């Protein structure tokens, strides 16, 4: 069972915190910073709402709280995910079981594949592990295990419960501030305008303070997850896994989507967009130079949820050589078939990212498919047709 130990040393007048579960313990200073930032965030949250209750009035207070409650309880949109089981991918689940045994954390209730790059965890009670297909082609098996160990460490520290709740609050605060701004634009009465102006001002200041404290907490939690992942998977696999995963994801986010969009405009039809992009990355990109540029040009602020990548890497002893072995996509059964099934989903998502350009292009073509020239009356039908079109194969 997890327990919090508080040791007070009267001679040095210090208080040290230590959190234990299984065989892993987190350094006292790191664990203390996590708890203090979390407590500070709670104090600010309660104090801000108490002030609103005192100085606005009960009706305005409810007027503020109700939109927040709506956003907190509202489920976030899931673009696309495919649940997988042990029967589907036994090697993956053996890997998850080994991490589960070492951490004492049960395997999440759901393991899902997504068409994107992110490997993450979420969930209050119904825990979920999200595995983005994009990242599997760049990580070696041991590096993939290290990244998964980092995510299990968030379950280890109950980060998805507290962190998830506070992330909901951050989004709800921002949504409520935007709500007041919209009321300001369309308010027909002076009294409503005054309430909206006061509410917008309060939430603008409050969101800045609360978000800064919350993201401080989030950065400390990431450091704790890094520490635990290193204990489980080893320094070298985690160092190279984190570096390769981050560089590939950043490059795909900044350039990959546009690369897909530009090829689609040139009437390139993808059978497997993941394979095509990976070949482009390996043949056209100097990965060592890319990683160097990312680390040198990285900019971080007080509202970032993760510590700077170069700071995280600088604390990890490592060798210059990556781990030997197969890439992590070999862990999955029929990975190429999965990638082909996800290809139209990812290309459709790219269409949505470049929506304004798509609308202009479709109007220029008078609603005709770029591949077969079939004409459509509605734009959504044209996009679905182009995203799933398979008459021509990838060159």
Low-confidence stretches: 1-22, 390-395
Span between termini? 57 Å
Query: How many domain units?
Result: 1
Helix amount, in percent?
55-70%
Radius of gyration: 24 Å
Number of strands: 7
Shape: globular
Strand proportion: 5-15%
- Secondary-structure content class: alpha+beta
Largest beta-sheet characterization: 4 strands, mixed
Integer average pLDDT: 79
Number of helices in the DSSP assignment: 13
The SSE string, one letter per element, is: EEEHHEHEEEHHHHHHHHHH
User: Which strand order spans the largest sheet, edge to edge or round the barrel?
Assistant: 4-5-7-6
Key attributes of the depicted protein:
395 residues, alpha+beta, four-stranded mixed β-sheet, three-stranded antiparallel β-sheet, 13 helices, 7 strands, globular
């Amino acid at each position: 069972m997890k327990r919090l130990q508080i040791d007070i040393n009267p001679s040095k007048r210090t208080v040290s915190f230590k959190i234990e579960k299984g065989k892993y313990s987190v350094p006292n200073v790191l664990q203390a910073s996590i708890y203090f930032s979390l407590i500070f965030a709670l104090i600010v949250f309660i104090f801000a709402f108490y002030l609103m209750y005192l100085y606005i009035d009960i009706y305005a207070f409810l007027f503020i709280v109700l939109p927040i409650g709506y956003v907190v309880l509202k489920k976030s949109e899931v673009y696309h995910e495919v649940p997988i089981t042990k029967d589907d991918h036994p090697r993956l689940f053996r890997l998850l079981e080994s991490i589960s045994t070492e951490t004492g954390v049960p395997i999440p209730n759901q393991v899902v594949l997504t068409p994107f790059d992110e490997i993450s965890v979420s969930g209050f009670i119904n825990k979920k592990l999200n595995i983005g297909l994009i990242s599997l082609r760049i990580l070696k098996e041991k590096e993939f295990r290290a990244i998964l160990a980092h995510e299990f460490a968030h379950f280890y520290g109950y980060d998805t419960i507290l962190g998830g709740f506070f992330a909901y609050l951050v989004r709800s605060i921002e949504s409520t501030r935007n709500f007041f701004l919209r009321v300001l634009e369309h308010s027909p009465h002076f009294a409503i305008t005054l309430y909206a102006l006061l509410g917008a001002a309060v939430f603008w200041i409050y969101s800045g303070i609360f978000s800064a404290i919350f993201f401080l907490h989030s950065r400390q939690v990431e450091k704790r997850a890094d520490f635990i992942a290193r204990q489980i998977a080893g320094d070298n696999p985690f160092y190279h896994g984190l570096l390769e995963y981050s560089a590939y994801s950043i490059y795909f986010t900044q350039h990959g989507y546009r690369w897909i969009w530009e090829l689609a405009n040139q009437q390139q039809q993808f059978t497997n967009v993941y394979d095509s992009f990976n070949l482009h990355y390996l043949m056209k990109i100097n990965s060592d130079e890319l990683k160097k540029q990312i680390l040198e040009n990285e900019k971080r602020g007080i509202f970032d949820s993760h510590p700077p990548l170069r700071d995280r890497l600088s604390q990890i002893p490592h060798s210059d050589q990556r781990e030997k072995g197969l890439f992590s996509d070999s862990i999955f059964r029929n990975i190429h078939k999965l990638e082909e099934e996800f290809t139209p989903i990812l290309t459709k998502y790219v269409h949505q990212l470049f929506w304004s350009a798509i609308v202009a292009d479709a109007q220029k073509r008078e609603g005709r498919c770029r591949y077969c020239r079939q004409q459509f009356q509605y734009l959504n039908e044209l996009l679905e047709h182009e995203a799933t079109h398979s008459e021509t194969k990838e060159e």
